Structure formats: C-alpha cells, structure tokens
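Quick check before the chapter quiz. The format below is the same one you will see on the exam, so make sure you can read both the input and the output lines.
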Amino acid sequence: MLKKIPNFTDTEVGVAMELILIAGGNPFQTDYNIFVYENGNGKILGYHCTGRRPLTDGVYDLYWIAVDPENEIKGIGKQLLEHAEEFVKENKGRWILAETSSKDSYSKTRNFYMRNNYSIVAQINDFYAVGDHLIVFGKYFVNNN
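Here is the expected output.
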C-alpha cells in the first residue's frame, strides 16, 4: 500500500516499514502504536502509527497516517485521524503533532489537517532540503488530564 502513494519515496517507505516492524516485532514496546483500517476481506486500506513523544508527559506524535490511494476519498483518513486523537485522549495526551512537507505535492495533506481543526504550530525552513520546509501541525486537547 505504501509504495502506491506517490509522495512517499523508497526511503520514506523504508522508515514507515521499520516502525511497523518495531511495533509488530516487540509486543512490549510502547513507542509506536499501529492501528489498521481493513475492509471486510482483511485487506488493509489505511493505517496510522502514533506514539508518545519521548521526554514529554502528554505529547503524542502522529508518525504516519496513510490511506491506499484507491480508497482515499472514502473518509478513511478522517476515521484514522479521529482514532489517533481518541488514542491520545485515552492516554491523557494534551497534544497530537503531525509533521509534513511544504512541497506542493503535499498540499492535500496540509489541507487535510486544516480541515480537521489542526493548526500550524511550527515551521522550519529548508528542513528536508533547500526549499522543502518542515511544517508541524498540532491539535490541543483541553482538560484532558
């Protein structure tokens, strides 16, 4: 599924798979939590990987959220995002953060976060490469502790 997403390079797919293997290979680790969205036949249509940011007491990273391109207008991404948010709230999280690129090819991703009430909480220019900025989206959960 990840290889079908045009924005993801082979290196990015490798990193995503590494986190999946860590989460699946060690049931005692708690850094990376993988949640999948399947159709009725067991085919994975999307997933998110969420985990607590080290050295914080209530900040979570949405490391990856991905939907099979053949199913991306069916609301699966929104359901996965809502699931990630519920996971954070259930674990007494205050923030969920999602990092993405400023490249034009990521405009749909940035719009997705904005439509779901995320705000830009940070930007680092020339982060991934010259002209490719890191944009950090965040959502704060009030009175969650």
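If your answer matched, good. The chain has a mean pLDDT of 92.
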